[in-house]
Write a structure and sequence with these properties.
Helix content is 55%, strand content 7%. By secondary structure, it is mainly alpha-helical. Strands 1-2-3 form a 3-stranded parallel β-sheet. Strands 4-5 form a two-stranded parallel ribbon. Helix 3 crosses helix 13 and helix 10 packs across helix 12. The longest helix is centred in the C-terminal third of the chain and has 30 residues. It is globular. Bound molecules: adenosine-5'-diphosphate and tryptophan (TRP). The site of tryptophan (TRP) has 14 residues, from strand 1 and helix 7.
């Protein structure tokens, strides 16, 4: 059976619609016919979250959210990255076969460099840890948003480089699974929805917050009787993803009809209704799970046990090939 994995960083209070549609939901769908795992990338979150309690809380919240989506009895291995004992050891070994020139090409590194922030080695080494997260478990495919595609290319380069260096075929070159029709979900200001821009709509937002966020989606200033372009509208971009095809087409028609008496305010209220319905089961599951928090930690440990065993199997080969102990 094909193996898939994905991860989200616990860098915010909650998973947002972009994370969900770009990575988590495709991973959930693929989990129906694959051997799947999903994890809390807490080691990857370390630089942006520099308070221990906050990181612990956000990691726990993300775990609850994963279980709310997958169900507590899921076959999918749900685990915390930092519970995997050998992951940083594998990263160190992969660092040794990763060309410096490859790392210099990473968009994530170039973006941070362009922002002129005080760079630390995390930004630089980030893709190597991500490669370990994937290569270490013999993964075939990784559901991710478009922004992560280059990291997957680097993962393949690193796999090839290790295999060449040690004249073996230990590491599989994984594919990215990208939901092409979604591309990148815009946030309420029209930029990529992201925790770091504070422009997101949370998958588990309560109704008040959901309404507030939807109402503040940025639009142009066309009026209720003007023809509007659904394909450039940030409200419609979300309707497009979350509405049923019938409702989506009905709303599209209203955008395109002159004198329809239908403005962005109306579209926002429809979006609120659509999302409230769509998100309700997830919100209810989360409430249920929160009644029994110990179970969440227990399940995380079960997931980590299996993933530790898998990584340890591969590490046996790595140890043999490299000559370390
Ligand atoms: P963020 O940008 O909010 O910090 P992460 O970097 O933790 O999110 O992303 C976790 C996963 O969600 C990645 O696979 C990423 O590509 C995907 N993702 C994040 N934002 C979006 C978006 N706006 N549209 C589609 N996918 C997204
Ligand atoms: N880099 C990913 C992000 O920012 C998170 C991540 C870490 C990941 N390791 C991974 C995603 C392995 C998929 C597979 O979103």
């Amino acid at each position: 059976m094909k193996k898939i994995i994905t991860g989200v960083k616990p860098t915010g209070e909650s998973m947002h619609l972009g994370n969900f549609m770009g990575a988590v939901f495709p991973a959930y769908q693929a989990s129906q016919w694959t051997d799947s795992a999903i994890f809390i990338a807490d080691l990857h979150a370390l630089t942006s979250v520099t308070n221990g309690d906050t990181l612990r809380e956000q990691s726990f919240e993300l775990a609850v959210e994963y279980f709310a989506i997958y169900g507590l009895d899921t076959e999918t291995k749900i685990f915390r990255q930092s519970d995997i004992h050998n992951i940083t050891k594998l990263m160190w070994i992969l660092t040794n076969v990763t060309p410096y020139s490859l790392m210099l090409r990473a968009h994530s590194f170039k973006d941070s460099e362009a922002k002129n922030v005080d760079l630390n080695m995390w930004v630089f080494n980030y893709p190597i840890l991500m490669a370990a997260d994937i290569l270490g478990y013999g993964i075939d495919a990784v559901p991710v948003g478009k922004d992560q595609v280059q990291h997957l290319e680097m993962t393949r380069d690193i796999a090839r480089s290790f295999n060449k260096t040690y004249n073996c075929s230990l590491f599989i070159e994984p594919k990215a699974i990208v939901t092409e029709w979604l591309a990148t979900l815009p946030g309420i200001d029209g930029r990529k929805m992201s925790k770091s821009y504070g422009n997101f709509i949370g998958l588990f937002d309560d109704e008040k917050t959901l309404k507030k966020r939807i109402m503040s989606i940025v639009t142009d200033s066309l009026g209720v009787d003007d023809i509007k372009n659904p394909d450039t509208c940030n409200v419609f971009a979300l309707i497009n993803v979350f509405a049923t095809p019938e409702r989506r087409e009905a709303i599209r028609a209203k955008y395109l009809t002159p004198n329809a008496g239908y403005g962005y305010g109306h579209a926002k209220l429809e979006l609120l209704e659509i999302l409230t319905e769509y998100l309700r089961p997830y919100r209810e599951n989360r409430e249920q799970i929160l009644k029994n928090p110990e179970l969440v930690e227990q399940k995380l440990q079960q997931g980590a046990k299996i993933m530790n065993e898998r990584l340890d199997e591969i590490m046996k080969e790595v140890v043999k090939l490299t000559g370390i102990k």
